[in-house]
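Posting for a labmate who doesn't have an account.
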Amino acid sequence: MTNKISSSKLLPGLLALAAAVAAINTMAADAPASAASSSAKARPALTVSLVAPERGDWSQTLAANGSVAAWQEAQIGAELAGLRLAEVLVNVGDAVKRGQLLARLNSDTLNADLAQSRAALAEARAAASLATADADRARQLKDSGSGALSAQQHEQFQGAALSAQARVEAAQARVQADELRLAQTRIVAPDDGLISARTAALGAVAQPGQELFRLIRKGRLEWRAEVPAAELIRLQPGLTVQLQAPGGVITGKLRMLAPAVDPQTRMGIAYVDLPADKGLRAGSFARGEFQLGRSGALSLPTAAVQLRDGFAYVYRVGSDMKAQQTKVQLGRRNGERVEIAGGLLADAKVVASGVGFLSDGDLLKVVAAPAAAKR
């Protein structure tokens, strides 16, 4: 009787305990959702200021890279074989004038040959003088009608005179050839310019066609810019070019465009004349910009543009005060501003700065821009 009463009393208590545990579990499950909801409601709006695109007149340029090279190079060598260099008078970096002596070959043998040729010429002239006098006397005898000379003898005297004169001309040619060879022992500058290379060594035996010096004609340099084939149509001879050099900006002028492009790289060469004495060196690399004129540009501060995954974005403010991510196309840059080439209307207003912290759909609070930021 006692056990039966105890069981009936415990049953209501157990039921009450189970109900309490179930209520506790339900409250625990609802707690995270309630916390998340409260957190979302409590998230503050981001304070931003707005800016509108500005329209201005910007310079239009085309950037390119290339190498500095000599406008024209002259290769200077010996024209005679087997003669030693007796003098070398210039070195790399020397400025020379047209006709200036650069080096001299040993000329002793050629001087002897020339003396011999001149002696042979004198001998030929003497023989020609005697032959001419004999021919004149024979002509006088023939004209006198005395019959002292036959026609055959007269012709022999005339032929001897002509042969003697031919020998004189041959001797003169030999003298001229020897004089020319002697002159070729003097290696001179073919033009004004700058010695850029020298292989001539004192005592070395020169060979025909062997380069002894290399000369940059007039000291002129040019910039050979590599330009994509599609951009060549934008360039015209006479355009101004700004080059970035170690000593500062150098201004050049486009002289000509190559008539063909490289089939491998699809790049064409633009030849730009450079001013002298600006510290540039042939063979050096340089960057530059072709000045194509001026044109209108719609621009924003660079702080208003977000670059992400290779694309550019700005953030407009919607009617619900939420950020609207908008993709735009960028163009030229000018200091702290960038051209908006597409994707945005001229009367649009976008977030001015801090766009790196924004995401599409963020709640925004718009405030007036600081006075220092206004243009």
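Reply:
Got it, the structure tokens are right above this. The longest strand covers residues 54-70.
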